[in-house]
């Protein structure tokens, strides 16, 4: 089953953007963005990583370079396509912010289901644990005004978008699809995925509580850790360097422990 899946793999260049390249690359940090966002969230991250670490970001339909394509409404479908396109020739870790944490989890689950390599570590940010995501009523059903209030409250709506009605409608359409990815998701029964997990949050995030973050321990191997940074739901804009430093230290520490066990 795993062989046929990879034999039909989509072009990685369509589903992922690479923001750094080096002849000495030895591992990849694969990043997944928040609801309504795009891969450009991670455009500058390569400036903060080690020379042998590449930064890749998922490029999913409906935004930025794929704005002409309709967005997807089912997380299992999106994760399947990402898993098919994911290059597996080097060790890798996942980082996901908000929606992206859930996407990273489901991609890893599908890799495990197909007996394919797993991320060395899953870093989740401002994201409730998968078992807490499903809602009786998806936020995709909210009206425009309600969605805008939600965005403004989280610090996620640039003011320039509000002045362009046509673009705003496109953003809201993508946002509805992304919210449905989260709000309709249920972890498949019998899921046995366990990974080294680190969970991050902003101290002033009014949407994600500490209990949401701690609940990730259910899917973690021993050594689960949480860390908070000053800021709101989008703390990573202002804490980028500190966040990446912490991420790299934990990833490298995990690599060292595996080497000692080998």
Text of the CATH class: Alpha Beta
CATH topology title: Rossmann fold
Roughly how much helix do the residues carry, as a percent range?
A: 25-40%
Tally of DSSP β-strands: 7
CATH architecture: 3-Layer(aba) Sandwich
CATH superfamily: Alpha/Beta hydrolase fold, catalytic domain
H/E element string? Answer: HHEEEHEHEHHHEHEH
Instruction: Please tell me the overall pLDDT.
Output: 87
Structural class: alpha/beta
Overall morphology: globular
- Whole-Å distance between the termini? 29 Å
* Structural domain count: 1
Rg result: 18 Å
Beta-strand content: 5-15%
User: Strands across the major sheet, in which order?
Assistant: 1-3-2-4-5-6-7
Q: How many strands, which pairing sense, and closed or not: the largest β-sheet?
A: 7 strands, mixed
Q: What low-confidence regions span 5 or more consecutive residues with pLDDT below 50?
A: 1-10
Structure notes:
The protein has 262 residues and is an alpha/beta fold. It contains 9 helices and 7 strands; from the N terminus they run ααβββαβαβαααβαβα. It has a single domain, classed as Alpha/Beta hydrolase fold, catalytic domain (Rossmann fold), CATH 3.40.50.1820. α4 links the parallel β4 and β5. The longest helix is centred in the last third of the chain and has 22 residues. The chain is globular and about 45 Å long. The two termini are 29 Å apart. The relative contact order is 0.14. The N terminus is likely disordered.
Please specify the SSE layout and strand pairing:
Elements lengths: L1 H6 L4 H4 E3 L8 E6 L20 E6 L16 H11 L6 E6 L1 H15 L8 E4 L18 H11 L4 H4 L2 H19 L13 E6 L7 H5 L10 E5 L10 H22 L1
Parallel strand pairs: 2-3, 2-4, 4-5, 5-6, 6-7
Antiparallel strand pairs: 1-3
Helix pairs in contact: 3-4
């Amino acid at each position: 089953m795993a062989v046929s899946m990879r034999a039909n793999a989509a072009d990685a260049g369509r589903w992922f953007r690479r923001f750094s390249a080096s002849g000495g690359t030895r591992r990849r940090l694969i990043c997944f963005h928040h609801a309504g966002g795009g891969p450009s969230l991670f455009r500058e991250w390569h400036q903060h990583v080690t020379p042998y670490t590449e930064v890749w970001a998922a490029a999913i339909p409906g935004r930025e370079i794929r704005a002409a394509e309709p967005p997807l409404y089912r997380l299992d479908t999106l994760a399947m396509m990402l898993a098919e396109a994911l290059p597996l020739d080097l060790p890798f870790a996942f980082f996901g912010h908000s929606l992206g944490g859930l996407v990273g989890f489901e991609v890893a689950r599908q890799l495990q289901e197909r007996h394919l390599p797993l991320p060395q570590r899953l870093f989740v940010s401002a994201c409730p644990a998968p078992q807490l995501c499903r809602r009786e009523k998806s936020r995709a059903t909210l009206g425009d005004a309600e969605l805008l209030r939600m965005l403004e409250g989280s610090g996620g709506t640039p003011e320039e978008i509000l002045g362009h009605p046509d673009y705003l409608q496109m953003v809201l359409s993508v946002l509805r699809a992304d919210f449905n990815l989260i709000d309709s998701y249920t972890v498949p029964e019998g899921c046995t995925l366990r990974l080294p997990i680190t969970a991050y949050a902003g101290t002033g995030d009014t949407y994600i509580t500490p209990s949401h973050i701690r609940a990730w321990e259910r899917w973690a191997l021993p050594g689960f850790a949480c860390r908070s940074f000053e800021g709101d739901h989008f703390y990573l804009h202002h804490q980028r360097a500190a966040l990446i430093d912490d991420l790299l230290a934990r990833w490298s520490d995990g690599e060292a422990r595996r080497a000692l066990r080998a």
